[in-house]
Specification:
heterodimer; A: Rossmann fold; 2 domains; 8 helices; elongated; B: alpha/beta; 9-stranded mixed sheet
Chain lengths: 326, 260
């Protein structure tokens, strides 16, 4: 049996929690399939991080150090990952579906002539091999994908499982990688932090968000904002609304906008694509209003209304104002 | 300068999703198709580069006869030429198989820049762009929100977590997979739609591209075994009744939460 290689990611000088979630998956699949677990930690100076991962489910941790790996660079990462695959004899490579994960994982699959699957929330082993589960059609359907054999590269949805809590033994081994910066055709230039937001949604107790179902930019100030105002809360939006230019990015709730956890989140005309759910599913109480009874948003909502938001929201706004004596 | 834009035709975003008889895809009869939303942003980006100077925009798509519609739309928006890879043998390909087809087209076109969407609205795999770049042997980046061309280079602001941007500089030729919202996509003008009818649309087969045996179900490593609605486990409590009843229920709950 081959081994499982998990590719760890360093963030803020530490191996990030998503990598320990990969360790959970890796250790589970290893036990179920007679495979061993190996890991790759790469960076300019990552000895301590490699030791840490070895103690927390990383198995045999390959530490690849190079100045070319100090910041994310797809080509450099690919060289290190290929070296780790060869050294570990891996037939399953796991990465987290983070911005660097989704950028390099498919390239690794093409380079290894491997099967590829992304953003999995489950990985299982049965008599015929590896089976992966993921969402398709923007969160509306579940797909079960089977690997036909050979190597597989899979990315895992961050947060899909708890970080590793067990006590499997690990070790650290240096992995020599030779990366000539002059040979690389891409270069990390820098990071631009997001601009200061006019709206800090993370501080709001109540958020009323509108999605593509609101249909028209004018309906945000006409329909959504009045409800937010009546409740003394803030207005938010899903990604498609911001992409369409109906509201600026500062209103976006989601994995690439603001991640919020208010006391009450009211989602109007939002279908519930994964990257939006990631931004609000830990809210204390979620109410969803959508005319599609199968909208994925109803899976995280506590209370749902299958109906026309243009009827419900104004009526609710009026009722809230009346209740407040206004 | 030549820009190759890869487009995928997908079921319309609001199309009814009924599982087919085999249980492995959705029923395609009777639903509307459209260009993958992420790819429309890539096409718009290519057309903006074309508007700013001399560039030829070639659009490529893979699929059955209905794909012609998507390519004509792209030509109507301003693309110069279209390539339609149409071959039943491609059915059942996994992402790597698709990337092989696009790589074969790229090898014959030799574009300076390949643009495509970060993912498709149906598969959501984010797989093909980096695979295509690896097969063609060019650098790539993904989730591009701003693309600036320099002398022999392309600088891309890509979206990372929390709304921050990571800047990567790529040597040309290169591939950028764009994130939604990078621009505002134009509509085809009536003049554009009329002109599109005369623009070249070449049809290629698997044999034309020298890919016999390398694509399709037989070559695929990953197969969808089952497609189904998510289990209905913890669904929300759904309020029923008239608007009045529903609003009463909502106000009641908000009061219960101590927020009213």
């Amino acid at each position: 049996m081959g081994s499982i290689l998990l590719v760890a990611e360093i963030q803020g000088g530490k191996v990030r929690e998503a990598s320990y979630e990969l360790a959970s998956f890796a250790q589970r699949i290893a036990s179920a399939s007679g495979r061993s677990v190996a890991s790759l930690v790469m960076g300019a100076s990552i000895g301590a991080q490699a030791e840490e991962l070895a103690k927390r489910g990383g198995g045999k941790v390959y530490a690849a150090e190079s100045a070319a790996l100090a910041q994310y660079n797809a080509e450099a990462a690919l060289i290190a990952i290929k070296a780790a695959v060869a050294a570990s004899g891996a037939d399953l490579v796991l990465l987290s579906n983070t911005p660097s994960g989704w950028d390099v994982a498919p390239r690794v699959a093409a380079a290894l002539d491997a099967g590829f699957v992304s953003d999995c929330f489950a990985v299982e082993v049965d008599g015929s091999g590896l089976v992966f589960k993921r969402r398709v059609f923007n969160g509306k359907l579940d797909a079960t994908i089977r690997a036909a054999g050979g190597k597989v590269v899979a990315s895992i949805q961050p947060g899909a499982t708890a970080p590793y809590e067990g006590s499997a033994a690990g070790s650290v081994e240096k992995l020599a990688v030779s990366i000539d910066p002059a040979s690389l055709k891409s270069r990390f230039v820098g990071i631009k932090q997001s601009e200061a937001k006019g709206v800090d949604l993370t501080k709001a107790d109540i958020i009323v968000s509108g999605g593509r179902g609101v249909g028209d930019p004018a309906k945000f100030p006409e329909v959504i904002k009045p409800l937010a105002d009546a409740l003394g809360g803030a207005m938010g939006a899903s990604r498609p609304v911001v992409d369409a230019g109906w509201l600026p990015h500062e209103y976006q709730v989601g994995s690439s906008g603001q991640v919020v956890s208010p006391k009450l989140y009211i989602a109007c005309g939002i279908s519930g694509a994964i990257q939006h759910l990631v931004g609000m599913k830990t809210s204390n109480y979620i109410i969803a209003i959508n005319k599609d009874p199968d909208a994925p948003i109803f899976e995280v909502a506590n209370l749902g209304v299958v109906g026309d938001l243009f009827e419900i929201v104004p009526a609710l706004t009026a009722a809230v104002k009346a209740a407040k004596g206004g | 300068m030549k820009i190759m834009v890869c487009l995928k035709q997908v079921p319309h975003q609001d199309a009814r999703l009924d599982i087919d008889g085999a249980g492995t895809w959705i029923k395609e009869d009777g639903i509307k198709f459209e260009i993958n939303s992420y790819d429309t942003y890539a096409l718009e980006e290519a057309l903006r580069i074309k508007d700013a100077g001399e560039a030829e925009v070639v659009v490529v798509s893979i699929g059955p006869e209905r794909v012609t519609q998507a390519l004509r739309t792209a030509l109507g928006m301003g693309a110069d030429r279209a390539v339609h890879v149409k071959d039943a043998e491609i059915q059942g390909s996994d992402a790597l198989g698709i990337a092989r087809v696009l790589a074969a087209v790229a090898k014959s076109e030799s574009p300076d820049l390949i643009l495509m969407g970060l993912m498709s609205d149906d598969g959501n795999l984010t797989a093909v762009p980096p695979m295509l770049a690896e097969l063609v042997g060019i650098p790539h980046t993904t989730a591009g929100l701003k693309i600036e061309r320099g002398s022999g280079t392309v600088t891309v602001d890509r979206e990372i977590e929390g709304g921050a941007h990571e800047v990567q500089e790529l040597k040309s030729p290169c591939l950028v997979a764009v994130q939604s919202g990078i621009n505002q996509v134009r509509y085809a003008s009536l003049k554009g739609i009329m002109a599109a009818k005369k623009k070249p649309l070449d049809v290629k087969s698997v044999a034309d591209l020298g890919l016999a045996g390398k694509v399709g179900a037989g070559a695929a490593r990953m197969k969808i075994e089952k497609l189904a609605p998510p289990p209905k486990g913890d669904r929300a409590e759904i309020l029923k009744g008239s608007t009045d009843d529903i609003v009463k229920g909502l106000v009641g709950k908000i009061k219960e939460l101590g927020l009213l």
